[in-house]
Amino acid sequence: MSAEKALIVMHMGGNFVKNPYLQYVGGDEVGWSIERDLLSYFQLIDLVHKAGYRVVMWFSYLVLGDSLKDGPIVCFDDASFRTMIEHSKKGLLHVYVEHKVDIPHFDDEDQISEDRNIMCESRVGGTCEDKGGGLTAV
């Protein structure tokens, strides 16, 4: 019996811009078929490294049928990655890599959470909220 596969298109090396809708501009797209049981944060980091990129701030993804206008869902903890893995059962997942560039380090978890909300809201041009599976536009 073969393991179930997750079909993923990773968007790496670009950045999000809003003009007038959210877009991921530049970078590379690489497609992978990964055993769903092996899909994890560490597996995604390994794939990013194999594609030649090093530093990742976080991952975000689109649910099948959504577009960047709908706002990507940000993965930042175990629960949000488990939700992403569940969404992978519905079909092709587009995963966007946000690379760390001159972002200050904070030891304060509240400050980190606030910064994630601010970054999410600036990318989607509206309000973001954690719906138990990662930050998403509301």
Automatic annotation (TrEMBL):
It comes from the Eukaryota. InterPro entries: PB1-like_dom_pln (IPR058594). Residues 5-99 form the PB1-like domain. This is PB1-like domain-containing protein. It comes from Hibiscus sabdariffa. The lineage of its organism: Eukaryota, Viridiplantae, Streptophyta, Embryophyta, Tracheophyta.
